[in-house]
Amino acid sequence: MMKDTYRRLTRDEALAWRDWSLGDRRVIEENFDRLGATTFGEVPSGAYVHAVDADDRTVMYLNPGYIEFPGGAAPEGALFDEDDPLGYVVLSTFKSRRTASAVAVENLAQCPIHPGLTLPASGRCDECG
Predict the structure, then answer these.
(1) What pLDDT shows up at residue 73?
(2) Which of 1, 55, 66, 95 gets the highest tally of CB atoms within 10 A of its CB?
(3) Among 54, 45, 46, which residue's Cα sits nearest to residue 14?
């Protein structure tokens, strides 16, 4: 379900959300088509684009380096992490988090309304808007 706090995007705007390679753009378009994605919205932090189908079901999350698929929507060949039900497809812009320097969890800002939800770098909670 698309929240009111999301910035609504057209399909073309969702495809232009990042400077994708031609191959990445093809993969994104194929999945938009395969899943019947009709509505797109950028979360307030700008971290990802949420895509839903005509029945207002979440079909994918478009991230800067990968696409996540909830509830069995992942295409054949998608990757899965052990404790995460979201399948994902890696794009050419993917950067491993394992190489990033660790930040102490206690130093991360938390949303005052949603306890336990860490705020992204923008400082804007994606749930609050």
Answers:
(1) 87
(2) 66
(3) 46
Q: N- to C-terminal Cα distance for the chain?
A: 15
Show Cβ contacts of residue 45 under 8 Å, excluding neighbours closer than 6 positions: 119, 120, 121, 122, 124, 125, 126
Name the E strands within 63-114: 66-69, 87-90
17 is written with which tokens?
């959300």
pTM value is 0.72
Blockwise average pLDDT, block size 10, the chain, 129 residues: 85 94 93 96 91 94 91 83 79 65 51 67 71
Cα–Cα distance, 32 to 39 (Å, whole number):
10
Q: In this structure, what DSSP letter does residue 99 have?
A: G
